[in-house]
Amino acid sequence: KGKVVYITGASRGIGESTVYAYAKAGASGIFITARSISDLKTVAETAKKTSSSVVVEPYAVDVTDDKQVGESVKKCIEKFGRIDVVVANAGYLEKWTKIGDSDPDGWWKSVSVSVRGSFNVIHHTIKYLVETKGYAILLSSAGAQARYLGASGYQSAKHQLNRFAEFIQVEYGSEGVKVFAIHPGGVLTKLAANEPSIVPLLKDKVELASHTMVRLTSGSEDYLSGRYVSCNWDLDELVK
Ligand code: NJP
Questions:
Q1: pLDDT value at position 143?
Q2: Where is the signal peptide (predicted)?
Q3: Which of 109, 158, 178, 205 is catalytic?
């Protein structure tokens, strides 16, 4: 209760759901970012209906741009004075193709949004998390441990993100920062829909997918009490 949360990729999907979960869990301030300011404003309106006491501040940021991320953190501090929880959630999944057929820009975008974006966010927020002994939450993926044919950029990036999360723990855990790498399974969002062959499989599994979403949102409340939450399940079943 009463925490200030900074979250990226908050305009839709898992990030949007996480905003509502924090509002419901009693956060006092939520600083929400993504590139689309109009979508963020809609999310802010909806979050305020979830909790009348929460203040939600939308701010347009491209996480791959260090300067923009730095500016956004400055604005968040000006608005709320502190940060208790950072959720580095923004992600991008390239079109699923084998390496030789990949569009290099799409491949590097997966890596950049995940790795560069999360570095930028943690780089600028970590001193505030040290002050509050707060929570650094990185959205990794069940795919980080997998090798599904066609998503080499995304999965390699998530693998690196896991190691990055370990480094945050190594460097700042002793100063009280709690670090989480969340590994969702398949959740039917725009990101997952980028791979047409997966969509029907996810639709068949809507119950399972929404179950993961439920676990993740209840997980967000758990983050506030410091319990580790894993949203792992076996994607093999979905991509066979
Ligand atoms: O994705 P999606 P999810 N700078 O596409 C934002 C991981 N995950 O909710 O900028 C700033 O619905 C974008 O907003 P906008 C996944 O890897 C998912 O599924 O306005 N923001 C939007 O708000 C990711 O890390 C599944 O376009 C940028 C958000 O990011 C996280 O969960 C499975 C941006 C993406 O929303 C959320 O994914 C798994 C940028 N450059 C892990 N680029 C799954 N869905 O099945 C994008 O294991 N955004």
A1: 76
A2: none
A3: 158
Domain range for 44 is 4-239
How far, in Å, is the centroid of ligand 1 from the Cα of 180? 17
222 lines ligand 1 (CB under 6 A): no
**Whether the predicted interface score ipTM is above 0.85:** yes
pLDDT digits (tens, 9 = 90+) for 165-189: 888 888 998 898 988 887 776 677 7
**CATH number where 47 lies:** 3.40.50.720
Q: What gap in Å lies between CA 109 and CA 31, rounded to an integer?
A: 24
Ligand 1 atom showing the smallest separation from residue 14 Cα: 9
* DSSP 8-state code for residue 175: G
| 14 burial via Cβ count (<10 Å: 0-12, 13-18, 19+) | buried
Residue with the nearest Cα to atom 44 of ligand 1?
Answer: 187
pLDDT value at position 95? 86
